[in-house]
Amino acid sequence: MSEHVIAATGLTKKYGDLVAVNGVSLSVEKGALYGLLGPNGSGKSTMIKMLTGQIRPTAGTATVLGVDVQQDPVGVRERVGIIPEQETPPSFLTAHEYLQLVGAIRKIPDIEERAAWWFDFMDFGDKKDVLCKDLSRGTRQKLMFAQAFVHQPALALIDEPLINFDPIMQHQVKDYLAEYTKKGNTIFLSTHILEVAEEICSDFVILHKGNILHTGTVASLDAEHRHLDDFFLELMQRTRNV
Amino acid sequence: MFELFIAMIKEEWRIHSTMFGSISFALFPILIFWIAFMGSFLLPLMRQALPSGELSIVLHANYLMLGFMVGAFGLLGSEVMNRRFGQASLLAYAARSLPLSERFIFANFVIKDTLYYFVLWVLPLALGFLLASPFIGVPITLPLLLSLTLTLAFLSGLCLVFFLSSLYSRSKPALAAVLVFLALAAGAIALVTHENPAQLFPPVMLFNAFSWANLLQCCATIVILFTVSIWLFTPETADSTKHYHDMLMPLAKKLSFFPTPPLTAKDIIDMYRSGGMVGQTLFSFVIPLVVIWFFLSLLNGYLPTYGVLLEFALVTGVIASTMYTWLTMFDTFGAYACLPVSVRTVIKSKIASFTVLQIIPAVFVALAALLSGQALYLLPAVVLTLSVSFYSLGVTVWLTGLSPSVMVYSVKVMVTYLVLVGVVLLALSAVAFSSPFAALGAVVLFIPAIFFARLGFAKWEAREQPGF
Across the interface, which of B82, B246, B340 has its CB nearest the CB of A78? Predict the structure, then answer.
């Protein structure tokens, strides 16, 4: 029997009259690299924020790794790794100090060894002792990636994790994510870069204006000899015509 | 180029109005107007205790103080863009991609802040007094003159802090030299003329004896301070390759008696590395309070011997409570969004950091007691300061959560704060004047302080944080 690490039912988020997410129900199986796809403003980031207890749903329920996100949002964040929409490490800590802070909050005893591994993997060079505010966007994104995975969570919810990386780092990180899921961990990846989703995701859901347009697997598209970006564009075109 | 200025004004308005709604925020200056209008009716009563000359000095001191506070909030030289805006996509930051010099953007920012806070705070106060004047038997020319001189006092405070902070960003020794010079000059004036230097504050002199020459002198001082400040302003030149030693964990170990040592250590490091530890302490705390001391000491003849010290301790307590704002201005809760940290935990860590900072007001008031030859009342003064500070902090936490500098412009928040803190200040003044050692009883304020803080934890935990 499959094990669901994320189970959402009727998740809705309204901001006044604006419905950012409209009754979304989905489930994500353990070990999946699940793509949350959609154009800008489709509700992807809002979904991640609700699933990690950063914002409260207007309606609906969700459990993440068996924890109710509304009852115990901090408990959810304890168990998962998160890369937020914007890279926001604290301005006046160095990159190294930030990972130490994350280690102290997450109670990681061997944080120094882990941080050293991540700085090496992310090719930080001598930037680890530079204040976060003085790091480039790409380096800040590397740091946010490291903080999301430094405690090796069973599930990581990551919002556009590759967007500021150079092609070499993108390649390296995609390999890392693929390997990570092979070990039985789960990735919930929000992106609008369809090539990336097609390359690494096993399952996907397409959101549009807060509603689910399609749920499927990359394998089923492959079987039909279709590319994800063509499928996505057709879907959007149909939606517009409707 | 006027468009940038207009856009900045709109932006400032929207920052506040989106938090509370346009109408609620628009009510804020009306509230200030109403307080000034109603407060004016107390003037005849106050005149029985204080001559109107001294009363006007106290009023000018308040406006000077307001200028200091507004100036110190954002205008800390080269740090301003990062301090106030961080990586936020606000105009003062975003306009850097336009073909405009940093100095021009900064000048617009300063003028915008001046005008904005003038309309928000100064104008309603002046209008309140002006409209009340016919009812309290004051000739109309007096409130008009007072409006002018109070405005000049506000601008003097603003420009002086702006000047000092720009100087600070250029050269710390130069700033120290200027401060020493000002202190010596004030001392020399006091020695030679046997007058309190506060009497020689140009707007006060203008109020006491209006002349066009005096007015010109006042305006010239402000314009010169402002121009030199813009000239001294240096665009951010932070060396992005600068490396820092690890401070977080060693400091966290030293703070291990607090509930969340790493978060408290982070707050202290934020203050230290941003220059806030020195800058904020100097511009938002020490300088305003030294000025307040001079003004309060004018009341020596009307208060018991220990009265000025204890009044000063109360004022210091209120100002010390604003240190919470220093700690919350660096990060919103969004910075903790990806970590297993609750709002309650973040607020508690800020309170712990605040507690560390309270050594500054405690030492400051103790020094004031010693230097004024009232060592006997040192303990009641320090107890008063810390009790008022923690009580006001509790109220602030309950009312504003992690956004004190923004939430203060909610009329509901402001009125509640004024009532809760004002009543306590009045009661403590009465107790302290009747018996200075009765002021030790102010420690009971720690009970409501804890009560309000706990209310705040529950209130803000239940709300979505704006940083998200």
Answer: B340
pTM listed for this prediction? 0.77
Contact in structure between B110 and B230 (CB atoms under 8 Å): yes
Q: Most distant CA pair in chain B: distance in Å?
A: 66
Predicted local distance difference test score (pLDDT) of residue B46: 66
Q: What is the extent of the structural domain holding A30?
A: 4-81+153-241
Mean pLDDT of A134-160: 93
Residue B22 confidence (pLDDT): 66
How confident is residue A9, by pLDDT bands cut at 50, 70 and 90? very high
Whether chain B has a CB inside 8 Å of the CB on A97: the answer is yes
Number of domains in chain A: 1
A130 φ, ψ (degrees, to nearest 5): -100, 145
Greatest mean pLDDT range, A57-61, A164-168, B258-262, B269-273 = A57-61
**Most confident of the ranges B1-5, B62-66, B130-134, B351-355:** B351-355
Tokens of B306: 């220990």
* Residue range A50-96, pLDDT digits in tens: 999 988 999 999 999 999 999 999 999 999 999 988 767 888 899 99
Subunit contact B338:A144, Cβ cutoff 8 A: yes
- Examine residue A12 and state whether it is found in any structural domain, yes or no: yes
Judged by a CB distance cut-off of 8 A, whether residue A223 touches chain B is no
Distance CA B184, CA A154 (A): 66
Q: Is residue A9 part of a domain?
A: yes
Query: Residue B245: exposed, middle, or buried by beta-carbon count in 10 A (0-12, 13-18, 19+)?
Result: exposed
Domain ranges of chain B: 1-236, 251-468
Among B425, B408, B426, CA closest to B417: B408
A103 found inside a domain = no
**Residue A156 parent element (H or E):** strand A155-159
Q: Please check whether residue A213 lies inside any domain of the structure.
A: yes
Q: What percent of chain A has pLDDT over 70?
A: 98
A23-53: burial string, b at 16+ Cβ within 10 Å, e else = ebebbbebbbbbbbbbeeebbbbbbbbbbbb
Q: What CATH code is carried by the domain that includes residue A185?
A: 3.40.50.300
* pLDDT, tens only, B18-61: 666 667 677 788 888 888 888 888 777 666 666 656 667 777 87
Answer whether B462 touches A (CB < 8 Å): no
Tokens matching residue B407:
């939430």
Across the interface, do A77 and B341 touch by the CB < 8 Å criterion? yes
Per-residue model confidence (pLDDT) at position B185:
84
CA distances A79 to A3, A156, A157, B287, Å, are 16, 9, 11, 48
ipTM (interface predicted TM): 0.87
For residues A100 and B265, what is the distance between their CA atoms, to the nearest angstrom?
Answer: 12
B88 in A contact zone (CB under 8 Å): no
How far from chain centre, in Å, is Cα A215? Answer: 17
- Residue B262, chain A, CB below 8 Å: the answer is yes
**How far is Cα of residue B141 from the mean position of the Cα atoms in its chain?**
30
Of B242, B274, B338, the CB nearest to A92: B274
